[in-house]
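Aggregate trends can hide what the representation actually does to any particular protein. This step matters because it turns folding into a mapping between discrete strings. For completeness, the protein is quoted in full, as a sequence line and a line of structure tokens:
=====
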Amino acid sequence: MKNGHTSDSDSARASSGRASRRPPRRERYSALQLVSKGLSGGDWPRVWEHRDLERRYDVVIIGGGLHGLATAYYLAAHHGIRNVAVLDKGYLGGGGSGRNTAILRSNYLTPEGVRFYDRSLKLYEDLAGELNFNVMFSQRGHLTLAHNDGALRTMRWRAEVNKLQGIDSEVIGPDEIKRLVPRLDTSDEARYPILGALYHPPGGIIRHDAVVWGYARAAGRLGVHLHQNTEVTGIDVQNGSVTGVRTNRGTIAAGTVVNCTAGWSTLISDMAGVDMPVTTSPLQAAVTEPVKPFLDTVVVSGTLHVYVSQTDRGELVFGASVDPFTSYSTRGSLEFVEGLASNVLKLMPSLSKMRLLRQWAGLCDMTPDYSPIMGATPVQGFFVDVGWGTYGFKAGPVAGEAMAEHIATDRVPEIIAPFGLDRFETGRLVGEKGAAAVGH
């Protein structure tokens, strides 16, 4: 690693370490043993090991969500860099990773975005085998509805961009939509008639907590230190280079610090003296009581600012666009629920008797072009993986893979080159609002 990360001799030691250090033996249980342990309340092995906070690490990652854990895992698994600490002021996965609706897709609008998210989708498809952890990925298809001629033109535009990148995506008509989702009102009498939809068969949903636990366990077994309840209070910079971080548990020296926080990203970057064009707004969601499965695809309406999917347990998960104001509040509002219920019933009137179970909110850090900020910053050794808005969970695997390569090799991977911080000075924006604003 360059930029003060690791010397040549250190790299040689890391290489030799890769050959000699193997992950601990995985615990395996038969079905009978699992039942026996569940009934007896026996001691289960910890998903990841608790370790003491050391005073120096090669890499410190701020943010114990999907992006931070994936970056740590790929640093260790692909590059042999295992003297890594992941810090979170709460518990792992307790921020945006635990407050999202875990919809996956790659049918974006720009060629850069399509390539990026498609790589992530392919990583997700193999993730259970990679991590030896069931992440419960259900590829059930993704529908983006068009209610007027303008929206239908945008869907056709996206479909052609997708096809040029080899993505399975096409515009379908009301009859095919009705076949896929019988509960949708596709009649001419609907308040918002459905003229067509962008259909993306590889899209689907996943268990967000399983993804977080899978990456955490895999990273921990490779030697990464995972520190919960460790709040970063400052970042030390000398002569334009990062030298460490200050926490509520003491100061840690490090030549590389990575900001993988969602919502709070500008506060962390400000500690290093790096300004970013990011605003933070709440994003609310809600879930209903469980019912017999009937919704096989994810349904999105940009016009109505609503999306809905059904979990494997039978609950309907609803969401909308971000709240129209900046805030760090994660409290739900009655106004959101009333508007959400009204719009959902315009699509599926038969859901009127279902009861709402709970609602919540997360924080979204939004950039002007609705694309992330990834890579190095003017402060040497300080990297950012932020600005994910409403679409960060889709990108977790590819973001971690690419950021790990960038940190380890000091080269910018082609797949994240368009998302550098400098694009806001040069004007090379990656405008994804047409596919990311409510697409989820």
